[in-house]
Design brief:
It is built from 12 helices and 2 strands, in the order H-E-E-H-H-H-H-H-H-H-H-H-H-H. The chain is mainly alpha-helical. The termini are far apart.
Length: 270
């Protein structure tokens, strides 16, 4: 979402539809659209009809975290975890950023997001609902100040890890502030337009092959042996080791099934 897109929606969709509805019900053509403070929203002066009958108002800055529990650090940390996972994937491919991103599928993105969500502390999510649901002091064993310190420490660690990954991809000096700004999702309209135009210019001449190399079950089992050994040496969490074992079990069963099918077919040619 950008300010231009939102402004277009306001005048081309919202105003005509609201006007038609009010007229059809015999009501005065007057309306107010209440918005939260997002970078993608233009100012209130830009979002009003010439006669001022339909206009916008913005909620106070502190209202959003009060009425939207997930806005209190949860979304920010989720995005940081996601982007760290995405950068790790780019680094592991050993290619340029543009080439590596072309190989990332929607399924990959969902997996990255899944991992990011499950890395969140459940207590953090619980605390975020306190402004709406109210605090239960009897069950509130961890002070909010302590939890906030944990959030801060986790954010700093995530930022430092992200800086290391960025330096591995594109050597430069990055700061915590750089990562925070990147995580805010502020879109530059000019940059967005130039990127879109560049994509459209190159779309005719670029052909990305979607054909993937078929990996045998034996190759997977050999690779899993190395991964399992590495995991033991580096004290990887048991839950992650269990996931590896599940993959290994599936690869073994598929390999056995494939061998049985091949044996049945070859028996006809004896």
């Amino acid at each position: 979402m950008t300010q231009d897109i939102f402004k277009h929606w306001f005048f081309k969709q919202f105003v005509p539809e609201v006007t038609a509805f009010l007229k059809s019900t015999g009501l005065p053509v007057k309306a107010v659209l209440i918005l939260d403070n997002a970078p993608s929203h233009p100012s209130a002066d830009e979002l009003k009809t010439p006669n001022g009958a339909i206009f916008t108002m913005f909620m106070p800055p502190n209202v959003t975290p009060l009425i939207q529990p997930m806005d209190q650090n949860v979304l920010r940390l989720t995005k940081l975890y996601y982007r760290k996972s995405l950068l790790s994937s780019v680094v592991s491919k050993g290619e340029g950023v543009a080439e590596a991103l072309k190989t990332i599928t929607l399924k990959d993105a969902i997996i990255h997001l899944h991992k990011a969500w499950w890395k969140l502390d459940p207590l953090m999510i619980t605390k975020c609902w306190n402004p709406i649901l109210g605090k239960n002091e009897d069950q509130d064993n961890i002070p909010l100040a302590t939890l906030r310190k944990t959030w801060t420490n986790e954010t700093e660690k995530l930022n430092n890890d992200t800086i290391c990954l960025l330096e591995a991809i594109e050597p430069a000096e990055y700061t915590q502030q750089d990562v925070e700004e990147w995580n805010k999702d502020v879109i530059d309209n000019d940059g967005l337009e130039s990127e879109d135009s560049a994509d459209s210019e190159n779309s005719d001449c670029e052909v990305i092959s979607t054909e993937e190399k078929k990996i045998s079950h034996v190759e997977v089992l050999e690779a899993l042996k190395a991964v399992s050994q590495w995991s033991i040496q580096n004290l990887v969490d048991v839950s992650d080791m269990v996931a590896l074992k599940k993959i290994e079990e599936k690869a073994v069963m598929l390999n056995i099934t494939q061998n049985k099918i091949q044996t049945k077919i070859t028996s006809y040619f004896k």
